[in-house]
Each structure stands twice: as C-alpha cells, then as structure tokens.
C-alpha cells in the first residue's frame, strides 16, 4: 500500500490552473487598496496583479508580452482570473508607475540598501540617503580615493585587534571572518559627507582536505554610525547580501532571465520595487509547483522552464490563425 502511494505521488503535476488559483489566493491581492478612481477602472487591481504574476510565471519578459498573455488567458482561463479580453500594456504600465507606487511607496519594506562595488558611487549613495534610506556599499579600486582611504586606515589591522569575528564550515572548508571598522565621524569623508563608517572584512578559508589557505579582503562604506550598526550586524549584512544574490537573485536571473530584457518593466525606482516583488511572487509559485511535481515516467523533478511551460499550456489558448496554412 505504501509503495502504491509513493508511485502515485511520483506522478503529481502541480503546475495546474487549480494550483495557481490556490497560490494566488495565498497572495491576498484583494487586500491591496486601489487608489484609482472607481468610475475610470476597467479592471480591478487584484485582476491586474493576478495577470502580472501569471504572466511572469509563464516567462513573459515585458509588458507587451503580458498584453499578449492576457489575450491568450482570456480565451481559456479568463473567467476565474477576471480577464475577458486582452489588457493593453499601457494599463499595466499605468498601474506600476502610478497607482502601485502610491499604494506601496510609503510601506518602508526596507531601510538599508547593499550594493556590490559595480553599483557603488558617491552619487548613488547620496540619492539613497535622500530617499530616507541607509547604505552599505562595497568598495574596490574604481571608487578611487575612498577605497584607498579604507585600505590606509584598515588594511594593516591585525586579527587580534578585530572588532568582530566568527568561524564556520563551508563546502569542506573552515572559514573564519574578521571585521574592522573606522569611524568617519559626523562630517564623513571628502564628498562622502553622508558616510559614517569604513569597514574591512577578511575571509580566511582553509581546505580540510589539502590544508591550503586562501585569504581575501573586502572593504565597505556605510551611512550608518558605529552606534547604529554594530560590527556583528555589519558581518551579518555582508553575508546576507551574497546569500540574497546567490540564492534568490541568481535563480531569478538564470531562470526568469530578468537581466536579458531589452526594455525594463518600469524605470521608476518605486515601480521597479513593485515589479521585483511581483516577480518574487511568481518565482515562489513556480518553486512550489516544481517541488510538488514529478515526471510520471521517471519520477524526476521537472526543471524551472518545464514547469513554466506547463503553466503556459494550462493557462493559455493557442492563438495562431491556421486557415491560410490550410489553404496552401
């Protein structure tokens, strides 16, 4: 009896319309207030949000493609989604840039921005602070003088003088982290008037099998003062930045190909935040469907692309006209 249950479970397919309905209900879009004027609304906000997430789950990579998806979904699954025809792409653009910005703009979903060195600049740091946020930015040689200053004041510090440190095991290596910080005071440093600390984090990794030791250093600048950002919290933020990049954003980039879009969904800072939140919702739906699905012939877990393709087949009707082909 037990083996029969396992065999039956191995053929599950969770990338279904009912599965998507349940996951969309979990998102509770009906609780999001709609700031638009009621008399000028063709589609309620939950319908638009559902269409966006469903389109993202079927690998739509632009608002124009979302418009096409809604036309396909209206023919096959439009009733439960509330979509009775194709929704114009400018409708989604209007929501992302205006109404959702108004609804989510003051939610304070985060208060600290972290960046790698490629996105670090004094201008971006100043813009971040002007928005009421703090920053924790990595420094490398392209940042010029402030990177050199960080090396000068922190590069010679010894492990025994570290402000924080810890050791753990990662992939067969014993890894030790040490952190040093330098207080820039209330005036910052040169043009970085909003900067309050420079930080150096050293990572020492010893291979348990070969005994080989590698040492690397990263430097950071932050707008948070030593009183507001402790050494241990700074270590945690540094690790969390790369965990977010390697776990969540890598999947979004590699599987949803978010960095390969020719046109951005939204160029407004708050609109981009909304798009990112919706994309993460779509990614979670795909992850749940993938976790619960198995191929009947092998019992293997399908790939991200296979799950998205199955959603596409389940949700969308085929649109191409074939009469001209039949005549030929």
Keywords for this entry:
328 residues; 2 domains; alpha+beta; 15% strand; globular
Which helices and strands, and how do they pair?
Blueprint: H1 2-9, H2 17-27, H3 45-57, H4 63-76, H5 78-81, H6 89-104, E1 112-115, H7 122-130, E2 134-139, H8 145-154, E3 164-170, E4 173-183, E5 197-207, E6 213-222, H9 231-256, H10 269-292, H11 304-315, H12 323-327
Parallel strand pairs: 1-2
Antiparallel strand pairs: 2-6, 3-4, 4-5, 5-6
Helix pairs in contact: 3-4, 3-10, 4-6, 6-10
Characterize this entry briefly.
The chain has 328 residues and is α+β, with helices and mostly antiparallel strands. The protein contains twelve helices and six strands.
The 3D shape can be described as globular
Number of helical runs? 12
Distance between the first and last residues' Cα:
56 Å
Order of helices and strands: HHHHHHEHEHEEEEHHHH
Number of strand segments = 6
In helices, the fraction of residues equals 40-55%
Largest sheet: 6 strands, mixed
Radius of gyration, taken over Cα atoms and rounded to an integer in Å: 25 Å
* Strands ordered across the widest β-sheet: 1-2-6-5-4-3
How does the helix and strand content classify structurally?
Answer: alpha+beta
Give the overall pLDDT as a whole number.
80
Total of domains? 2
Strand content: 5-15%
Query: Could you name the ranges where pLDDT drops below 50 across 5 or more consecutive residues?
Result: 1-10
Can you offer a commentary on this structure?
- The chain is α+β, with helices and mostly antiparallel strands.
- The chain folds into two domains: 2-104 and 261-315, no CATH class; 112-256, no CATH class.
- Helices cover 46% and strands 15% of the residues.
- It contains twelve helices and six strands.
- Strands 1-2-6-5-4-3 form a six-stranded mixed beta sheet, with helices on both faces.
- α3 (45-57) crosses α10 (269-292), α4 packs across α6 and α6 (89-104) crosses α10 (269-292).
- It starts with a helix and ends with a helix.
- Residues 1-10 have low confidence and may be disordered.
């Amino acid at each position: 009896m037990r083996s029969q249950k396992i065999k039956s479970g191995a053929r599950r397919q969770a990338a279904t319309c009912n599965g998507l309905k349940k996951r969309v209900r979990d998102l509770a879009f009906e609780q999001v207030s709609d700031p638009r004027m009621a008399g000028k609304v063709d589609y309620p906000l939950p319908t638009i949000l559902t269409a966006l997430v469903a389109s993202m789950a079927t690998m739509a990579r632009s608002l124009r493609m979302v418009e096409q998806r809604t036309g396909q979904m209206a023919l096959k699954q439009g009733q439960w989604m509330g979509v009775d025809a194709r929704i114009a792409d400018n409708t989604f653009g209007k929501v992302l840039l205006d109404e959702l910005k108004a609804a989510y703009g003051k939610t304070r979903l985060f208060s600290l921005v972290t960046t790698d060195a490629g996105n670090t600049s004094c201008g971006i740091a100043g813009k971040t602070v002007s928005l009421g946020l703090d920053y924790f930015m990595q420094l490398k040689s392209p940042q010029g003088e402030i990177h050199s200053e960080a090396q000068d004041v922190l590069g010679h510090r010894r492990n025994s003088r570290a402000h924080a440190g810890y050791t753990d095991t990662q992939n067969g290596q014993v890894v030790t982290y040490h952190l040093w910080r330098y207080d820039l005071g209330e005036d910052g440093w040169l043009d970085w008037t909003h900067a309050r600390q420079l930080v150096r984090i050293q990572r020492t990794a010893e291979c348990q099998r070969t005994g080989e030791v590698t040492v690397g250093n990263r430097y950071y600048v932050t707008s948070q003062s030593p009183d507001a950002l402790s050494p241990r919290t700074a270590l945690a933020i540094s690790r969390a930045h790369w965990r977010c990049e390697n776990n969540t954003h890598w999947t979004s980039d590699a599987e949803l190909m978010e960095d390969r879009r020719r046109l951005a969904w939204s160029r407004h800072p708050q609109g981009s935040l909304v798009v990112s939140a919706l994309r993460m919702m779509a990614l979670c739906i795909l992850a749940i469907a993938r976790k619960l699905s198995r191929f009947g012939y092998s019992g293997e877990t399908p790939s991200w692309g296979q799950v998205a393709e199955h959603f596409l087949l389940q949700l969308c009707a085929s649109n191409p006209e074939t009469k001209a082909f039949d005549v030929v």
